[in-house]
């Protein structure tokens, strides 16, 4: 358990973010390895099927993950306030919610997958492959939600290193299994999905064993879990806006995918590959933002709001520098990166153009996430939700639809940095307004009063 309320802000955030960043990079490697093996052994139609599946997967899990994030913020604030009883009840409530949500997601996804792929105009020759991959992938939802729940708990308590170790093991397992199932056993695209399901199950089981052996307060025991309605309502108040935001974001990504799908299999495959690279490149900003959220949550819970500004400034500098470095690296090696996944010349050329356009503006993306991290750490998720949805639905999707008619697929790519810039500016303006300071879940006044009472009883 890491206390982020004492010590140098920048150093604490960096040390907390780096293991989490490495862990999420390894988690993204699930998708990257799948795409590399599928593209190399099964061809561009299968590669397009895998790429088309992920916006739909994201749509189904986003609401659940958003609500769970609300609980994580509550955990971090109660931990900062040293109220371990409420920490335990908050964690129990999240576990119960995630279990039932995973079952619902699996049923809905498998039932409507074919209809949704047709709705987004996925080419007919790709749909059977996409449905197969997607349905098998969803069978591991309970493991996916379970492991992410455990990781969120540990991060809320200030431990970002342990989830990394689990992910390294799971990622290596996935890489070996996907190659074995696809290249050796010839199980096709279903083999790729089964490899991911097994690896996620391994990560979840490892996480449960670790908690039960090392964390008495947050020990995982399905027979002794307690669902706290009041905490769940607070989680909904904080997490529902984020969940709705992510759901509408995922729906927006489906809308973008529908536009992309109109340009054929080559463009779909290129978008899939470039999107994998793009997701990895965006990890630093997202994880620095998440680390800052935990930092803000703990310090506001401990009644130390002055440290928030210090943390924001330090995180801006770190994530911004990394964004510039990432942009330059991707632009220089864009063709080589694309050729890791496929040797198809048309797919490589389209994807390389995407990377030049989009990666040039990662600093906008980074700044937007860092600012949002402050507001989410304070429990203010409603306005950030509206900002994100405005940037996506009012700016990016219309821009992609209109510009693609005049500039082809490049018009779709240019809509991305335009939306990032608008989101960054609006987020910063709201941060300056300062309303997020009034959204803290744990009452600072109560904590301060208790400290005064305790101190007054000590001998002078």
Short description:
This protein has 460 residues and is an all-alpha fold.
Oligomer category: single chain
Say how many strands there are: 0
Task: Count the domains.
Answer: 1
- The proportion of residues forming helix, as a percent range, comes to over 70%
Protein structure class: mainly alpha
Order of helices and strands: HHHHHHHHHHHHHHHH
Radius of gyration, taken over Cα atoms and rounded to an integer in Å = 22 Å
Shape from CA axes?
globular
- Compute the average pLDDT: 86
Binned strand content? under 5%
Separation of the first and last Cα atoms: 33 Å
Poorly predicted spans: 444-460
Number of helices, where a helix is a run of at least 4 consecutive DSSP H or I residues: 16
Instruction: Report on the biggest sheet.
Output: none
Structure, described:
With 460 residues, the chain is mainly α. It has one domain (9-448). The chain has helices spanning 9-41, 44-80, 84-119, 127-138, 141-156, 162-184, 188-214, 229-261, 265-301, 306-332, 334-339, 345-359, 362-377, 382-407, 409-433, 444-457. 57% of the residues are buried.
Quick tags:
single chain; 460 residues; mainly alpha; 16 helices; 83% helix; disordered C terminus
